[in-house]
Amino acid sequence: MQLILFWAFALLTLVFGGGVVINRNPVASALNLVVSFLGLAALFMLLDAFFIGVIQVLIYAGAVMVLFLFIIMLFNLRAEKLRRINWPAAAGGIAVAIAFLSQVFYVVGRFKPAQQRFPPLTGSKIDDVHNIGRLLFDSYNLPFQIIGVLVLVASIGVIVLSTRQLR
Amino acid sequence: MNRLVPWYVLLSPLASAVGITVLFRRAKALSSVVSNAAVLVSFVCSCWIFLQPNISAPEPNWIDIPGIFQVPLGLTLDKLSKTMLVLVSGVGALIHIYSLGYMRDDEGKSRYFAALSLFMFAMLGIVLANNFIMLFIFWELVGFTSYVLIGHWFERDAAADAAKKAFLTNRVGDFGFMVGILMVWMATGSIVFSDIVPQMSKLTVNPGYLAIAALLIFCGAAAKSAQFPLHVWLPDAMEGPTPVSALIHAATMVAAGVYMLARVAFVIQSSQDALLVITWIGAVTATMSALIATQQDDIKRILAYSTLSQLGYMIMAVGLASNEAAIFHLFTHAFFKALLFLGAGCIIVMLHHEQNIWNMGGLARNLPITFLTFAVGTLALIGCPPFSGFFSKDAILALAYARNVPIFVFALFTAALTAFYMARLFIVVFLGKPRSANAKSSDEAPLVMLVPLIILAVLSTVGGFSFFARHFVVVPHEKELIIFVPALAIGAMIIGLGSSLALYRNQTSEPLDAQLLRRRFYIDDFYDWLINSTQELLARITAFFDRWIIDAGGVHGVTGGTWGSGALLRLLQVGNLQAYSFLFGLGIVFLIYFTIFR
Amino acid sequence: MATLGDYLIVSGILFTIGFAGTMLRRNIIIILMSLELMFNAANLSLVAFSRFHTGTNGLPNYNAQVFVFFIITVAAAEVAVGLAIVVALYRARQTTHIEDIANLKF
What CATH number does residue C90 fall under? Predict the structure, then answer.
């Protein structure tokens, strides 16, 4: 059962990920990306990472994509007209991508632990919010605070960058 | 003290040259006096040395690498060199005195006398040298000073070119000379004459080697004594002042070649092949230049070709293995040729530097003493008894008749031609009516120029007689007297005289016209063309090399490479984001490849 | 049950799609979206490994998940700033085509 779910959601993610790259219309791309993110969240759930899955939906699909769509709508971006395609450059790019992919396949194929299944979880209760929270505040407190500051800085930066007249 | 006198002979003109160059450049009169004094000192010392039966000079060692190479600075003082000392310094002294008058108004007088002194030093060095290297050094020095003297009036293009021509032609001969010296040194291990003589067997064992060495040494003499084909510099060298022509080209420098051949006779005479070649070259030169002389119009040119012809005689004698005859002729030739040149100088100066014989004429009336002395010189040159030239030329003719009849025929023909062109010269210049204003209004030369003429005239008269010459040179055939050969010689002379008289009497312009002879057998033109095309070829090759290999390949290669690689690298920074990310991805792929797959 | 390798391969393919998107598309916004795809691919592989390396107490290794948390946060901040820049750029150049905003010319 889990396998079927895995393949289903993996396929979802990949196909709509491809759709992002292929679509002409930015809005369509954005929507494809949303579905891709949802598929990814499902995959996270399948991996028993519930907290991360929820975060993914909330933040990525909920905030980031909304932001994208806001911007696209703000500027009323239409489907761009097809300009002259630089075929040699495109071919080069595709070649690099395929090379990379083949390398990934090769590495994963040779990676011993990759053949193994996931060990079963025997913990009493899988309370990953609790566990992640504790880890976050115990071991990674400093990075956590820094992340806070970073987000603050990002907000300020966004406000500054968006003013109508840049002085 | 007495032993240093030979060195005084050599060093006194050197001191004069150095002194004039360093100290007396401005004081022209002083320079001329210093130079004359120096050469007179040399002459007096030479006479003193001549009267000493046995004399030797200290011999410092210059280069001394034991077993390999030793060059001492030694002086040979045998009969031949003593005679040559007296001859060279004597004629030199007379010409120095003559120059006092000839160059009186010249701007470069100091320069002239300095060069003249240096020339005397070099010439005396050649006479006194006792080894090949010393001889060669002085040989080259003589070439250099003759360059300076010929090009004395260097503002004239013709003079500068003539000086260059002389130097370059001599250089070619000197190169052969050097190779010949090296060949002798390689075989015998020494360059000192007295050391080589006992070792001649080492050379004679290989006749081909010996012949080549001898001919190469002869090369040097051929250049210096202006034999065919290196004769081209001598006629052009007449661009120099007339005393220079007299000294260098009549009496001393050109004789250096003959003297040198006599000095190294032990090498030359050991090879029959070399002797044959030498003789024929002498004969060809003699005949060729006599033919050319019949068609020249410049008085100095005619005398120059006459010198070439007489030198040919001397070389012929050397080739016939008789140094005595060659030196005897050199001895007498020095007197009458110097006399002729100085006489021509008088004429030229008194006619305000006119040199074309067709603009002269009737000078017998205006320049009587010159006329008389010139007549003596001419008669001596054409071999009229009892003048000196008759005896020395006759000696050579007898030699040729005895040893090589075809040479004799050439020599006889040349004798007839000699009479022909000298008579032409004499008739056109001195007899008849004056053909130009300069000729009409000319006067006799000043005394300071006439005294040397008279002295030389006397010497030309008595120089051939055995009682006089015996003290100086070995007179060949002193005892016997073959009637046949002198008769033929006199006959040839009369034929030449007669035909010349018939053709040129009362002529106002040249009746004959042989273009081949006028253009000197086109030899000069041929050399011109040869040098031109060689230089052109070399220039083209060098230009090609420079333009295509250094410029295009080297310079442009480097710059082009840099530019090209710059252009290539610039492509990496076009500001195209996607190009960057492409390269980024490419880098990642390679990185993974090199870490994981290798 | 899927194996670790399957997840890794999915992650790899997703990453490649995102990378191809950044290389091949000309619209800035699409490029930014492809960037997000790449981030997510990395997240997926991290979570897969977290699940794989189950500790002694039978729980997945949460360190990787904390890392994913951080990545998501930072990615969100970066997207915000990036889009702000795109806004400013659009206001200046009136275009989102990447070739039009290349100032550094050959």
Answer: 1.10.287.3510
Nearest CA in chain B to A96: B586
Fold of the CATH domain A1-80: Four Helix Bundle (Hemerythrin (Met), subunit A) (1.20.120)
Q: Is the pLDDT of residue B478 over 60?
A: no
The whole-model pTM stands at 0.65
Q: Choose among B582, B592, B596: nearest Cβ to A92.
A: B582
Q: Which chains touch A (3 or more CB pairs under 8 A)?
A: B, C
Q: Of B437, B462, B455, nearest to B369 (Cα)?
A: B455
Least Cα distance to B418 among B475, B494, B521 occurs for B494
Q: Which of C19, C37, C38 is the best substitution to test chain B (most B C-beta atoms within 10 A)?
A: C19
Count the domains in chain C: 1
Tell me whether residues B585 and C23 touch, CB distance under 8 A: yes
To which H or E segment does residue B242 belong?
Answer: helix B242-246
Write the residue in C23, C99, C103 that is nearest to B581 by C-beta: C23
Structural tokens at position A6: 């895995």
Chain B closest-CA separation from residue A43 CA (Å): 27
In a domain, C106, yes or no: no
Q: In the predicted model, what is the mean pLDDT of chain A?
A: 89
**Which pLDDT belongs to residue C74?**
95
Whole-angstrom Cα distance, residue B51 to residue B553? 73
Give B-chain residues touching C19 at CB under 8 angstroms.
581, 585
Q: If you measure CA to CA, which chain B residue comes closest to A108?
A: B596
Which two structure tokens, joined as six digits, stand for B198?
């006992």
Question: Best mutation site among A9, A108, A145, A146 for testing chain C: the one with the most C CBs within 10 Å?
Answer: A108
- Whether C40 maps to a domain, the answer reads yes
Q: Strand B69-72 relative to strand B61-65: parallel, antiparallel, unpaired?
A: antiparallel
- In angstroms, the separation between the Cα of residue C51 and the nearest Cα of chain A is 6
Distance CA B318, CA B396 (A): 10
Residue-wise pLDDT for B518-561, tens only, equals: 777 777 788 888 888 888 999 998 888 888 878 777 788 888 88
Q: B212-232, pLDDT tens digit by residue?
A: 888 888 888 888 888 888 888
Distance to chain C for B556, nearest Cα, Å: 23
Of B428, B422, B413, B430, the residue nearest B511 (C-alpha): B428
Q: Which residues in chain B are closer than 8 Å to A106, comparing Cβ atoms? A: 596-597
B319-323 contacts at long range (C-beta below 8 A, 24 or more positions apart) = B319/B275, B319/B276, B319/B277, B319/B278, B319/B279, B319/B280, B319/B281, B319/B282, B320/B275, B320/B279, B320/B396, B320/B399, B320/B400, B320/B403, B320/B404, B320/B407, B321/B269, B321/B275, B321/B403, B322/B399, B322/B476, B323/B261, B323/B262, B323/B265
Residue B479 confidence (pLDDT): 45
pLDDT in tens, B425-462: 888 888 877 777 777 777 777 887 888 888 888 888 88
Question: Helix, strand, or coil here: C93?
Answer: helix
Q: Which residue has the tokens 């997000």?
A: C36
The complex's ipTM works out to: 0.90
Q: Does A83 contact C at CB distance below 8 Å?
A: yes
B63 strand-pairing partners: B71
Angle at B323 between CA B317 and CA B329, to 5 degrees: 65
Task: Mark yes or no for CB contact A71/C29 under 8 Å.
Answer: yes
Neighbours of C2 (CB within 10 A): 20
Any idea what DSSP says for residue B119?
H
Could you tell me the residue range of the domain that residue C79 belongs to? 4-101
Q: State the Cα–Cα distance between residues B302 and B292, nearest whole angstrom.
A: 8
- Name which of C23, C65, C89, C93 to mutate to probe chain A: the one with the most chain A Cβ atoms within 10 A of its Cβ: C65
Residue C33: inside a domain, yes or no? yes
